[in-house]
Design goal:
518 residues, 12 strands
């Protein structure tokens, strides 16, 4: 794939407006695509799209393959006849500016159960045939996921390591007995996945017709309490009870004297290598069936990762361990880097030698990480809110960029630009004003212009920066265990003046994409 100069906006679907308490992939998402296209932007970046669990984080999902049922659109189900107006009359009065997951989740689950019951009534033969085909095509992950979620539901939502031993260790007789007794519930979870993938496919088709590419996100690690770890325990460092023996994180640094202990189980990379990284290739193929480009999170972990003994409460007493390195990316190129097979319709990534992958190369970056990134010609990331705390040698200042990079004003893990500028030391604020030759009264757009005018092939910013919002709109605080991922845009935010201003910026700096009709 050849990356071409373009611009876009970072916005997770859950942040879209709408009447159901959380953004979804229905009409408002289609309108969002139309806004991007009309403004001449051709990129929409999202966070991971998987089913969220405790803490509502899209980076801690119950599956690396499944979709999030909470962002299924009730409006699309109404159109399809899987819901009726009577089904939504008891909709709670949700807050407009944030997601109240405590209220949203039971409401959405109730709607989805009603949709499944209507499907089971036999009144939708076309849906039945499509669902059957979907289950067959996705059986390699869907069967385990639907069974996992059903067992979890039957045991009060508890982690799989606390299930009865026969189910925890996947004894054949126990799984068959449970599956026979809960066949309807297993089918229900599979059906919800069909709904997600059907709606997302419609949205992606609309985006591509408008000339908009979707950038997805792949966390390097998966959640311990996930169908992935439960169904493939041999691929992770676990003890006989299913508990991790070593976990992921990052070492102490200037920002965190005890480091960050993420807690995700670590891969037995030598076993992944033995079968040609089959699980990872399946995972990548699944994500590329949803998006056009991916941001590979914690890219440095593929060169070397921080291994923490599971019994340690902080990340201080860990060690660097080599990752799979070039062997992993060569396997990706070999398996997925070919033109699509016209007969099979198989999904492939690239026909030009460059994978459609953005390397999230932030944090403690060593020469081996840079060598790995550059060997496969992967663009790295530049973050402008990191640019002004030192001097002209700062790698995040635009004059130090290379074209093969992706620049952001900030990401979901940072302060908004307005929030950053308000909290920054005066020395940093002064350097930013002098560097940008601006007075600081419109700092969010000052950074947007700096990003758009740079040589970086892609320029992106969170929607919050286009709206000049402060940290009340910040998406995530990495050290904060709750209250994240809740921000939503207002239905009135996408104004004609904003579209015109973004379009003019795209034109001025050569990032304007010609809108496609249809």
């Amino acid at each position: 794939m050849k990356f071409e100069r373009a611009s876009g906006i970072l916005l997770h679907p859950s942040s879209l407006p709408g009447a159901y308490g959380i953004g979804d992939v229905g009409p408002k998402a289609h309108e969002w695509i139309d806004f991007l296209a009309a403004a001449g932007s051709s990129l929409w970046q999202v966070l991971p799209l998987g089913p969220t669990g405790y803490g509502d984080s899209p980076y801690q999902c119950f599956s690396a393959f499944a979709g999030n049922p909470y962002i299924i659109s009730p409006d699309a189900l109404l159109t399809e006849g899987l819901l009726t107006l009577d089904d939504i009359r008891d909709r709670p009065s949700f807050p407009v500016e944030r997601v109240d997951y405590g209220a949203v989740i039971p409401f959405k689950v109730k709607l989805l159960k009603r949709a499944f019951d209507r499907f089971r009534s036999g009144s939708h033969p076309n849906v039945n045939e499509e669902f059957k085909a979907f289950r067959e095509a996705e059986a390699h992950w869907l069967d385990d996921f639907a069974l996992f979620m059903t067992i979890k539901e039957a045991h009060g939502g508890g982690s799989w390591v606390d299930w009865p031993a026969p189910l925890r260790s996947r004894e054949t007789i126990a799984l068959k007995s449970f599956g026979d007794a809960h066949a309807d519930d297993i089918e229900r979870y599979a059906f919800w996945q069909y709904l997600f993938f059907w709606q997302w496919a419609n949205l992606r088709e609309h985006a591509n017709k408008k000339g908009v590419q979707i950038i997805g996100d792949i966390p390097i690690f998966v959640a311990h309490d996930s169908a992935d770890v439960w169904s493939h325990p041999e691929l992770f460092y676990l003890d006989d009870e299913g508990q991790p023996t070593v976990v992921a994180g990052v070492p102490p640094d200037y920002f965190s004297p005890t480091g960050q202990r993420w807690g995700n189980p670590l891969y037995r990379w030598h076993l992944h290598a033995k079968d040609g990284y089959a699980w990872w290739l399946d995972r990548l193929s699944a994500v590329f069936s949803l998006v056009d480009i991916v941001r590979l999170d914690h890219f440095r972990g593929f060169a070397g990762y921080w291994e923490i003994p599971a019994e340690q409460e902080t990340a201080e007493n860990g060690q660097w361990v080599p990752g799979p390195g070039a062997d992993f990316f060569k396997a990706i190129e070999k398996a997925l880097g070919n033109p699509p097979d016209e007969k099979s319709g198989a999904t492939h990534l690239s026909s030009q030698g460059t994978l459609p992958i953005i390397a999230e190369d932030l944090g403690e970056i060593t020469p081996d990480v840079i060598e790995l990134r550059d060997r496969f010609k992967l663009p790295g990331m530049k973050i402008l809110v990191f640019a002004f705390d030192s001097d002209a040698e700062n790698e995040f200042l635009p004059h130090n960029f290379t074209p093969n990079s992706v620049v952001y004003t900030g990401t979901h893990d940072n302060d908004t630009t307005c929030g950053w500028y308000e909290r920054a030391d005066e020395k940093i604020r002064d350097y930013a004003r002098r560097y940008l030759a601006r007075d600081g009264r419109d700092m969010a757009w000052d950074l947007i212009r700096a990003a758009w005018s740079s040589v970086a092939v892609f320029a992106l910013a969170p929607l919050q920066d286009f709206l000049n919002l402060g940290n009340e709109a910040r998406m995530n605080y990495p050290s904060k265990p709750s209250g994240n991922w809740i921000w939503r845009m207002s239905p009135r935010d996408l104004t004609d003046s904003l579209r015109a201003r973004l379009k003019e910026t795209n034109i001025l700096y050569g990032r304007h994409a010609i809108r496609k009709e249809g």
